[in-house]
Amino acid sequence: MQIFPCPFCGPRNETEFHFAGELGKERPDTTQEVAAPDWATYLYAQRNEKGPVREVWMHLTCSELFVMERDSVSMEVVGSGSLREGAE
Amino acid sequence: MTSHRTTRAALIDLGKPLRFTFDGTAYQGFEGDTLASALLANGVRVMGRSFKYHRPRGPLGAWVDDPNAIMGVTLNGRSLPNCPATTTPLEDGMQARAVNAWPSARFDIKGGLDLFHRWLGAGFYYKTFMWPDWHLFEPMIRKMAGLGDISRNVLEDYCADQVHDHCETLVIGGGAAGLAAARAAAEGGQNVVLVDDKPVLGGGVHQLAGVEDFAPRDWVASEAHAIEAAGGRILTATTAFGIFDHRMVGLVQNGPFGTAPRLHRMRAARIILATGALDRPVTFASNDLPGVMTIDAACEYLARYAVLVGKRIGVLSNNSLADDKLAMLAEAGAEVVRLNPADGAICALGRKQVRCVAQGRNSHKVDTLLVSGGMTPLVHLWRHAGGKLDWCTERQAFLPGAAPEGMVAIGAAGGTFDLDAALAEARAAGSGVPADAIPSRYKLTPLWPEPGSKGRQWIDFQHDVTLKDVELAARENYVSVEHLKRYTTLGMASDQGKTSNMAGLAAMAAVQGRPLPEVGTTTFRPPFVPVPIELYHGHHEKQLWHPLKRLALEQEHREIGAALGEYGGWLRPGWYGTGDAKAHIRQEILTARNAAGLFDASPLGKIEVIGPDAEAFVDFIYYNTISTLKPGHIRYGFMLTEGGIVMDDGVIARLDRNRFVISCSSSHVGSVRTHLEAWRQDGNDPDRIFVHDLTDHWATLTVAGPKAREVLTDLALDMDLSPTAFPHMTMRETRFAHSPLRVARVSFTGDLSYEMSIRRSKAAELWQALVAAGERIGAAPIGVEALSILRAEKGYIMIGKDTDGETMPHDLGFGVPRQKKKVAFIGDRSLHSVKANGARRKMLVGLTVSVGDKALPTGAHLVEGTPLQSVGYVTSSYDSPTLGHPIALALVENGTERLGESISVWHMGETRMATISAPCAFDPEGARLNA
Ligand SMILES: [Zn+2]
Asked: Per residue in B756-810, pLDDT tens?
C-alpha cells in the first residue's frame, strides 16, 4: 500500500486515488482535421516509462487533480504539486 | 515423565497437562508444547507422508522451517487443514491427523508409490499423461495430489480483525538482537513495536547458558520489561509475513486454535530486521528419514519444550556453532557421535526412522541424526522490501546487501551469529549510536550437494524433489533457477523452500560447474508463512464493504409497506406491498397510466455546473449542443467517453446564464462527477467553472401520469401549471413550505410528469402532501420495478442495460450532433472512426412477438445465417400491463434499417421468432407527454 501526497489533503493511502494519465498529453484540436493515427495515439498510446515519471492523479475524496512525481521502479514518491503549475 | 521429556527447565508448564490424539492414538503434552514437541516427547517420529512418494517423514525443524509434519487438526468441532505441527500450539482435546496419509502416517497405504520412484522423477506427470489429453487424467492426479482436506463445516465467527497501525521503529524478531535493538530504540524515546512469531519471546536465547550474566529467561524478561517501561509495545505470536510498498508491514497475530488471526497493517518509519537464521539441512542418501533433523531444531526442542529428541545421536556439522549446542544435548543425557563431513559421504539407514548412519566402512547405531550445513539468514522480508543480497563466501550464504530505504538487518539475519557482536550491532541500530563491529568467530567448511553421488538425496522434503531431479532438470536444460523451480516444483510447497532453496541452488551450481552466486536466487514473495485468505478479508463485506445509500424518506416508504431493495447502490422501494410482487408492480403501472404514480427519484443526479465558463464547458462535456438552451429550459443529452461510447444519458437544465443542473443517471452520479472534475481541472480554467454535486442534499419526488397536474394543483404552489405556461422540457422555481422548490417537466414514463426537488429535510413534508393529494384522484406510490417497465414501454433506455461498451449515440437514433455540432466535445473524433462508420453497427430497436407469445428472455441472441451467427441481443424485456402484450428492446446490427423484418431469437437451445420494430411501443406521437 503506497502513500501518496495530495497537495490539498496531505499524505493518504493509494486506495483514495485514481490515475488520470501521464502528464503532458495534449488533446488534439478536434475542430480541425485530426488524422486517425494521431487520434489513436492520443486515446491509447502511453509512454509507460521505467524510472522517474510525472503523472496526473485525482484524489477522489477531495476531487483535486494534481501532478505527482514518482519512480515507477522503486515506487518512491518524489512529490506532488498543482496541475496548473505542473502543466506550465 | 514420558520417554523423551527431560527435567531441564524449559518454557512448558508441567502443572498443566493437555490431552490430545494423533492419528487416533491418545497422548499427553503440556501447556507451552507444540503438536510436534508433544509428539516427539511421546516418542512419535513419523508425523506425515511426503507429497509424491508418500515416504514417512518426521520433523526436520522446530518452527517455520519444518517442511514435513503437516496435520489436519480438529478442536471443539472446528477443523483446519494443513497445520504445521511445529508451529501449532498444543491445546487440550486436539485431534490431529497427518495429511496425505491414510489410515495413518505410520501405515500409509500409498506408501507403495515409493517403489516406483524410478519413474516418478521431475516432469513425470507432464511427460506421461500428454496423450491423448492431459485433461483426461487431471482429475485423478489432482485427487492424489494436494495435502489436507478442507472441512465442509463453515467456521462461524471466523472473521479476521483488521488493525491499521503505525510506529517509528518496528523491530521484527524477538531474539537477542531484536530485544536489544527494541530496548535501545524505546529508551531513546522512539515509538517502538516489537513483533515475534513465537508465543514466548527470546528466539534462540533459551538455548544459551546465559546472556550477559543473566539466565536466558531472566534476560528476556528484563529486556521485555524495559521495552514496555519505555513505552514500547510487544506483539507475540505475531508473524511479519510481508513488507509491501512504502514500508507497510503485514503482521498476522494468531490467537487460540480455530479463531481467525488478526491482521495488522503496520506502517513503520523504520524497520529493524532481526529475523534470525535457519540451520540448513545437509544433502546425503536417505536424508529424509524420520529422526534426521537440524541441530538447531533439536536444541530448540530441548530448550523450549524439555524434549531430548534422541538418546544416541549422530552429528554431522560443517560449522563452529555446533560445539556449544552439542554440549547442551550431552548435558541432557544424550550420547553424541560426531561425524566429520571430510571423512566421506554419509548414508542414513532405517525404514520408518533412522537406525544407523554409515560413512565409508564405518557405521554407527543411532536413533537420531542431527545435521547442520551452515546458517541461512532469513532475508525474505529484506527482499520483499527491495533490499539487495550479497553472497558471502566465508559464511556460504546470501547476506543483506544494499538496504531498502528505512531498513536495517541485524544479528543472525545480517550474518552476525556471535551473541556479543549481535548485541552490540542491535544496540547501535536501536539507539542510532554507532559501535565498532566485533569480528566474526563463525567458521564454516562448505558442504553442498554432490551431483553424481549415490542414493536418493532429498533437496525439497515437502515436494519430494531429490538431487537426481535437479540433475535431470539441468540435463533437459532447465538451468535458470526460475525454470528449475517450476519444472521440479522445488521450493513451491507450503514451506516455500525455507530449507530447500539453498540446497537446490547449490546443486544446480554444482551440476553446471558455476559458482553458486552466479546461479542466483528465486524471487521471495509474501507471505513468509501461509496465512488464511480470511486474513485479508475480515469485516470487509456487505454494508461494511459497500455501504448502502439511504433515502431521506426510507421511514415513510417502510410505513406504507415498501419492498426495499438495492438499486445502483441505493436502498429503494422496488414496489409497495407484501405477497405477489408481480401483481403489485402491475397495479402500480396501471395506476401510473390511469391516474398518476408518486415516485421517489431522489438518487437522480443533481450536479450543478456554475460559472462564466459553464456554458462552454457543458457544450464540451455533452454530445448535444447545450449552449443554445434558454434559461428555464431542459434538454435530453448524452455524455460520451473520448472513445465516443455513451457513458451516461439524462437531462440538463439551464437555471440562468451561468448555471446548469445535470441530472445524470442515479447509479452514475459518482463517475459523472469525477468525469466533470477531471475535465474542469485539466484543460479548462478551474477558477471560472465550479462543479457542485447536490445529489444527496436535494430529494426528488416525481408525479407522473395523466392526472399529475391535478395532484400539483392540490399543493397550491405559486406557479402557473398550464401547458402553455409550463410546457414539457422546462423548469420552474417556486417555494414549498418556505423552502425553494425546483419543478422540472421531464418524463421517464411518457406521461405528463413533474420532477420536484427540495432540500432533504423538507422531503417528508412534500411527500405527505403528494400522497394526500394523490389519494383523492387515485394516484399512489410506485417503485423502481414499475418505472423500469413504464420507461421500456416508451422505448426509453437505461445506459449499461440497453447499451453496451460499443454503443455510440447514432446507434440510439441521435445522429444529428455528430454531423452538425461545430464546437469540440468529448468523443467527437471517435464518432468518425472507421469503426463508428462501420456497416454492421448494433442499433437500438424494439421487438414484438406474435399474439399470445410469452415475453422474450432478456439476453437472448438474435441470430441469422448459416451457420447461425449472433447479430444482436435482447436488452430489456417485460410483459406490458399497459399494452397487454410483451415488449422488448434489443441491440441488433443495422437495426433501424430493418424495421418490420422478422428475426430468430435464440436462447438456451430454443429458437423463436420476433419482429423488429421501433423502440417506442406506447404513445409514439407523444400526445400524453405534452399534455
Ligand atoms: Zn485531497
From this structure: 999 999 999 999 999 999 999 999 999 999 999 999 999 999 999 999 999 999 9
Task: Assign domain B795-917 to its CATH architecture.
Answer: 2-Layer Sandwich (3.30)
A58 near B CB under 8 A:
yes
Q: Does A64 contact B824 at a Cβ distance shorter than 8 Å?
A: no
Q: Please tell me the pTM assigned to this model.
A: 0.88
Segment 227-246 of chain B within 8 Å of chain A by CB: 244-246
Place of cell 442515479: B666
Residue A55: CB atoms within 10 Å: 19
Q: Cβ contacts (< 8 Å) between B833 and chain A: which residues?
A: 36, 39
Residue B136, exposed/middle/buried by CB under 10 A (0-12, 13-18, 19+)? Answer: exposed
DSSP-assigned letter for residue B125: H
Long-range contacts of B360-363 (CB under 8 A, 24+ apart): none
Which B positions 660-699 lie with beta carbon below 8 A of chain A? 673-674, 677-678, 681-683, 686, 691
Going across the sheet that includes B549-550, the strands are B549-550, B570-576, B562-567
Q: Cβ separation of A1 and B677 shorter than 8 Å?
A: no
- In whole angstroms, give the CA distance from residue B216 to residue B208: 7
Residue B236 burial (C-beta neighbours within 10 Å; 0-12, 13-18, 19+): middle
Instruction: Report the C-alpha gap between B299 and B276 in whole angstroms.
Output: 15
B43 CB-side CA count, 13 A: 7
pLDDT for A88 equals 43
Three-class secondary structure of residue B769 per DSSP: helix
B155-279+374-441 carries CATH number 3.50.50.60:
yes
What burial class does residue B81 get, using C-beta atoms within 10 Å of its C-beta: 0-12 exposed, 13-18 middle, 19+ buried? Answer: middle
Q: Fill in the DSSP letter of residue B660.
A: E
Q: What is the CATH number of domain B13-108+281-372?
A: 3.10.20.440
Chain B CB contacts of A2 under 8 Å are 245-246
Q: How far is B203 from chain A (nearest CA, A)?
A: 30
Which residues 797-826 of B have a C-beta within 8 angstroms of A?
A: 822-825
Looking at residue B548, the DSSP 8-state letter turns out to be: P
Q: Under 8 Å CB-to-CB from B721, ≥6 apart: which residues?
A: B709, B712, B713
Of all residues in chain B, the one with the smallest CA distance to A28 is B829
Q: Is the ipTM of this complex over 0.85?
A: yes
Q: Answer yes or no: are the C-beta atoms of A65 and B683 closer than 8 Å.
A: no
Q: Residue B623: CB partners within 8 Å, gap ≥ 6?
A: B637, B638, B639, B640, B809, B814, B817, B818, B821, B825, B827
**Triad B691, B694, B698: Cα angle to 5°:** 160
Measured distance CA(B199)–CA(B252) in Å, rounded = 13
| Structural domain A1-24+46-88, CATH architecture | 2-Layer Sandwich (3.30)
Query: Which residue from A minimizes the CA distance to B827?
Result: A30
d(CA B855, CA B62): 67
Residues B291-313: tens digit of each pLDDT: 999 999 999 999 999 999 999 99
**Grid coordinates of B627:** 449552449
Q: Give distance in angstroms: CA of A10 to centre of ligand 1.
A: 7
Distance CA B431, CA B412 (A): 19
Q: Cα(B324)–Cα(B607) distance, rounded to whole angstroms?
A: 76
The CATH number of B607-693, from 3.30.70.1400, 3.40.50.970, 3.40.50.720, 3.30.1330.30, is 3.30.70.1400
**φ, ψ (nearest 5 deg) of residue B218:** -70, -40
